[in-house]
Amino acid sequence: LMLLSLLAKESAALVWLAGLTGWRGASRRRLAAALALMAAAGGLYAAFRAPRFRYELVVAPPETRRMEASARITPPEAPRWSYPPSPPPWGEIYVDPWVRLWTMSAETGRSLSRLVVPGKPTIDRAPAVRLGWRERPVLGAWLLLAALGLAAVLLRGAAPPASVGLLWTLAAILPVCGIAPLYSPVADRYLYVPMAGAAWVLAALFEAAARQPRWGPLAWPAAALLVLPWAAAARQRARDWSCDKTLFFAAPGGPQSPRAAYNRALILLGEARAAEAEAELRRAVREHPPFAEAWAKLGALREALGDLDGARQAFSAGAAQPGPSPLPSFAFARFLSRRGEGEAAAALYRVALSRDPGFEPASSGLAALGAARPKR
Fold first, then answer.
1. pLDDT, position 143
2. Alpha-carbon distance 129 to 335, whole Å?
3. Torsions phi, psi of 348, nearest 5?
4. What gap in Å lies between CA 165 and CA 161, rounded to an integer?
5. Buried b vs exposed e over 243-275: b needs ≥16 C-beta within 10 Å?
6. pTM here?
7. How would residue 235 be classed by pLDDT, with cut points 50, 70 and 90?
8. DSSP state of 186
């Protein structure tokens, strides 16, 4: 079961828990054998997971794959092809490992704090990039992690269930604390497995208090009162996650990435609310100018509304952004082709094909321009 759990990235760290829970009273030979087994399991996990790792944001090669027509982006005539998204505002953590360490240390501390105080669920949560280890959130997170680890060791004899719960929490959050770069560095879903350990610790503390003559009568009523804010938060979460619209328009409990505004724009466009959708798209590109997908969608919207100058500016801004996707260049090329600017369109089709030679819509567009050109 532990080896099978390695197939899921969040639960992969639980294999270490198998050795940690049997640590107390184990002989050196048994402990060495357990560590060797865990090392072998970790090697199997690395061999299985590394070739399937899909979060190589900046350096990922283009992947050409047809998708359903209902998932079309831009232009609306073209089928949807799947490519890595635009680099996010926190792209520096993928380039500088020290920035990733400092940033994800602080974010791990913030995530653990949400296990204590229930906060509002936040879709597309954005990390705050930390540029030095002396920043308070970084130092605070390191102190918190050290304190939890020390408490887990000290409680092994006095309160084994609490010790195991702390170890569970730390081990379960390990895969998402920045060791490997994730496109979404922070997300509420990363706390699903660590939350089980936190609940275990809390239950152990209340059970210990219930055994004390002085605190026993108050322990379980206090536990019931503690459940109330969590129950309210869970109810609100269920309401917010009832559909895409309530999810993306719910008031966030923390900073969001520009992709949240982009997703709201897609929902508004589906409801034919063009002015509100444009406001969300402009918010997305204002917060993150290299957001090529938002620029392309804004260009398609302005063209549909008859604002050709505004469409040209938006398409041009999207095509100018670096990235592995040919879609922004292709969208601008189609716009220019419709305006009769064949040479400029052909150049952009070639840019799209340089990013993905297998991108058939660009090949077809370039061929159509060649066929339309008058023969000499």
1. 92
2. 37
3. -75, -35
4. 6
5. eeeebbebebebebbbbbbbbbbebbbeeeeee
6. 0.69
7. confident
8. -
The rounded distance, in Å, linking the Cα atoms of 34 and 40 is 10
- Sign of the torsion formed by the C-alpha atoms of 23, 25, 30 and 31: positive
- Residue for token pair 């990363």: 190
Q: What is the rounded distance in angstroms from the CA atom of residue 289 to the CA atom of residue 50?
A: 32
Q: What is the pLDDT of residues 108-130, one digit of tens each?
A: 888 888 887 767 778 888 888 89
Question: How far, in Å, CA of 156 to CA of 131, rounded?
Answer: 37
DSSP letter, residue 175: G
Cis peptide before 97 (omega within 30 of 0): no
Residue 316 carries which side chain, given as an amino acid letter? Answer: S
Q: DSSP states of 195-233 as a string?
A: HHHHHHHHHHHHHHHHTSTTTHHHHHHHHHHHHHHHHHH
Q: Residues with Cβ < 8 Å from 348, sequence gap 6 or more? A: 319, 329, 330, 332, 333, 336
Residue ranges of the alpha helices (H) in the chain? Answer: 2-5, 14-21, 28-49, 92-95, 97-114, 136-158, 160-173, 192-210, 216-240, 244-249, 258-270, 274-287, 292-304, 308-319, 327-338, 342-355, 360-372
Smallest CA-to-CA distance from 104 within 127, 85, 77 is with 127
Q: Please report, for residues 26, 44, 56, 62, 183, the alpha-carbon distance to residue 50 in angstroms, rounded to integers and kept in the order given.
A: 33, 10, 11, 18, 15
Q: Distance between alpha carbon 49 and the CA centroid of its chain, in Å?
A: 18
Q: Residue 48: pLDDT band by 50, 70, 90 thresholds?
A: low
Contact indicator for 299, 318 with CB cutoff of 8 Å: yes
Q: Give the CA-trace dihedral at 222, 228, 230, 233, to 10 degrees.
A: -160
